[in-house]
Design a protein that fits this description.
Immunoglobulin-like; 2 domains; elongated; 41% strand; 246 residues; five-stranded antiparallel β-sheet; 3 helices
Amino acid sequence: MSETNTTNSNAKVWLSIISIFLSAGFGAINYFYTRSVNQNQNERWDKLNIAEITLTDIGFLIQQKLSEQKAKQTNWGYKPLLFREIKDRVYTGYVQVPYALVLVRLPSNKSIELIPHGNFIFTLSEYSNEIKRLNLKVGEYDLMKRFEIQFNFKNIGKTIAKDVRIKIDMIEPRNNEGSVLTQPAEILSEISFNKTFIFFLGMSTDIPSNLKFRLNIQYKDVFEKEHEKQIPIIYDSSRNYWQYGD
């Protein structure tokens, strides 16, 4: 009788030990499973909510707008570059001038320097009037076309972006300087901002068939992690079409 009781007692002890090991094993499995699930959820949260500065749109800043009839009647004195204004895929009857004529100082060794107090002009008759108004002498100035391109950006993430630095380089043509935007302030979620890039072409120079740019975006997210990406950009002047992508 005592042997039976001893055997039953030993069996209970082993069952208890096995139960403890099984409980610990299931606990460990549950811990690592929960940890894995939480890690995946955190990664998904980061992807959905972390700051992301993205390029949303590009376009020339239009310097003058006039009806097609008035454009035909204007004595430009040269062949102007005109864009047809399209709204909702319909031509409005207006044309747009994506540049202004400006007087620049000669000689120009490095960067292009505008003549102080000069106005934006669009015809050669206005050019003659500007020379007289500013009392300029031959050899002191040149006439160039000044273009402005606006790059639009947005933080599409759900948290802030910090120390944003955007650099735009014109690859072709190469005779124009790069442009840098530094934004030390925090850019909140869904906030849009822009950067204007200015370049010049000589009067005898047509806008190239392809304008090529390199865009570099750097910023920090809410966890101080640094992000950087480069975006190639091409403008097709024959179609007035911008192409860009990550």
